[in-house]
């Protein structure tokens, strides 16, 4: 018998992936510099958490047994995993196959943004130059670096997922 909560989480994961792909494609098409804006990243994070929370809520509604912390976390994390994996694959194809020049342009924009931010915080010129040199030497869009970034992203979403699971879990009622 198919687990309805798993089916819901999988569906929401696909919806999340499609939504992220559309957002990234629109940002790519209209203004690459959006990828360097802090608020764009925060907006994507909020979008992911909202859709994963909606998935967890729906999974709780269809649950026929006690919706434990483990169930809530699994529903949330499966949605995040599938959605962000779809987005990762799209990003890899876009920046490593379709338009490698966009990856170079984004690296330059990121360097400019980093320089401005570090200067704004009053960082010494030596430290700024060191950070920029490291960014120039390392390809942010390589397969290995994108997988590393994905791993760190999953850790962040998992930490948020712990909080979401606490909110949506059901406690066993105790008769004292």
From TrEMBL:
Keyword annotations of the record: Membrane, Transmembrane, Transmembrane helix
Claim: Membrane is one of the keywords in the record: yes
InterPro entries: DUF4199
Domain of life: Bacteria
Residues that span the membrane, as ranges: 12-30, 36-54, 75-98, 150-168
Any Pfam family matching the protein: DUF4199
Protein name as catalogued: DUF4199 domain-containing protein
Species of origin: Gramella jeungdoensis
């Amino acid at each position: 018998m198919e687990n309805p909560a798993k089916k819901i989480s999988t569906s929401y994961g696909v919806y999340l992936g499609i939504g992220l792909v559309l957002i990234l494609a629109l940002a790519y098409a209209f203004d690459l510099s959006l990828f360097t804006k802090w608020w764009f990243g925060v907006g994507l994070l909020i979008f992911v958490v909202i859709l994963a929370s909606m998935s967890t809520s729906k999974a709780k509604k269809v649950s026929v047994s006690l919706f434990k912390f483990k169930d809530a976390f699994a529903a949330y994390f499966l949605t995040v995993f599938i959605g962000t994996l779809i987005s990762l694959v799209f990003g890899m194809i876009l920046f490593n196959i379709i338009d490698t020049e966009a990856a170079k342009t984004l690296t330059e924009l990121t360097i400019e943004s980093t320089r401005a931010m570090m200067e704004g915080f009053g960082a010494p010129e030596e430290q700024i130059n060191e950070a920029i040199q490291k960014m120039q030497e390392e390809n942010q869009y390589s397969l290995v670096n994108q997988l590393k970034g994905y791993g760190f992203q999953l850790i962040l979403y998992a930490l948020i997922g712990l909080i979401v699971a606490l909110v949506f879990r059901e406690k066993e009622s105790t008769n004292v």
